[in-house]
Amino acid sequence: MDRERFATAMGIMRRLRGPGGCPWDAEQSHESLKRYLIEECYEVIEAIDKKDDDLLREELGDLLLQPLFHAAIAEERGAFTIDDVIETLCDKLVRRHPHVFGDQEIRSSDEQVANWERIKKAEKGEERKSALAGVPPHMPALMKAQKITEKAARVGFDWEHTDQVFAKVLEELRELEETMSSRDQERMEAELGDLLFAIVNLGRFLAVDPEEALRKTIRRFESRFDHVEKSLHGRGINLKDATLDEMDSLWNEAKTLEKQSTRDSGQ
Predict the structure, then answer these.
(1) CATH of the domain at 82
(2) How confident is the model at residue 47 (pLDDT cuts 50, 70, 90)?
(3) Residue 198 falls inside a structural domain
(4) How many H helices and E strands in the chain?
(5) How far apart, in whole angstroms, are the C-alpha atoms of residue 40 and residue 90?
(6) Which long-range contacts (CB under 8 A, 24 or more apart) does 153-159 make?
(7) 37: alpha, beta or left, given left = phi > 0 and alpha = psi -120 to 50?
(8) Are residues 145 and 161 in the same domain?
(9) 162, 194, 196, 243: which one has the fewest Cβ atoms less than 10 Å from its Cβ?
(10) Using 50, 70 and 90 to split pLDDT, how confident is the model at 76?
């Protein structure tokens, strides 16, 4: 990175926070900025999904603004500076990659993950009370479930084969079906949660990220529903006045067009 450009960006941030700067920027705190940090992460993901380099460059800049913002606030409190943040990161990267910056040998990515965890645990200087500790409490539920099952698997609490996990999914589905007849909302919630958790486990065994899989399904749903709406509009039919058969036919048409587009693109 061009250190001068980085210093310029940090200087702009300090000016925005300083006397004669921007009132909104000056009012922000670590707590008030939490939502923007999360929003910017998702906007970067959207740019990646769109494969739009110009948009990705812009969104990465917006995301980079957040660490600068937090560092400026911390600097004002005398806590740390952006230089301290970067130095801490560099030290950590070197320390946790002894196979790159030292003489340790690592033969696979799985071995590296295990080694990373060992180093991380040693750095904390104390034994964690649980093997599941260290997962951020506010992480999205699907991601958190995946992280927790990965941690449990590292200490041997795991299924042996994929078919066992699939059988568990079917078992949880049957239990949810049985509970539905009771109309007990609390029990249905619990069984639905168990089913989702089992599906996350299955995704791990299939090397499929459940969060990513669900996001792609949502995008397909939105695209197909958009086709239904536009097609009905083109026929002069209001969406609310359309029959379910009409909408279902257009939905299937959207799926066919989707498959054709995939074949044409060679995917």
Answers:
(1) 1.10.287.1080
(2) very high
(3) yes
(4) 12, 0
(5) 23
(6) 153/204, 154/114, 154/117, 155/131, 159/201, 159/205
(7) alpha
(8) yes
(9) 243
(10) very high
Residues 115 and 173 in one domain: no
Does 156 map to a domain? Answer: yes
171 and 234 in a single domain? The answer is no
Give the chain's domain count.
4
Question: What tokens does 37 get?
Answer: 């940090």
Region 176-196: what's the mean pLDDT?
A: 94
Residue 129 lies in a domain: no
Confidence check: pLDDT of 191 > 90? yes
Paired tokens of 253? 């048409």
pLDDT at 23 over 80: yes
pLDDT in tens, 94-116: 999 999 998 888 888 888 888 88
Containing structural domain, residue 110:
96-124
Compute and round to an integer the Cα radius of gyration of the chain: 25
Residues 6+ apart with CB under 8 A from 176: 188, 191, 192, 194, 195
- Both tokens of 264, joined, read 């044409």
The DSSP line for 129-140 is S-TTTT--TTS-
Distance CA 2, CA 248 (A): 55
pTM reported for the whole predicted model = 0.71
Domain membership of residue 194 (yes or no) is yes
Q: What type of residue sits at position 76? A: E
- What SS3 state is found at 118? helix
Alpha-carbon gap, residue 254 to 227, rounded angstroms: 6
3-state secondary structure at position 66: helix
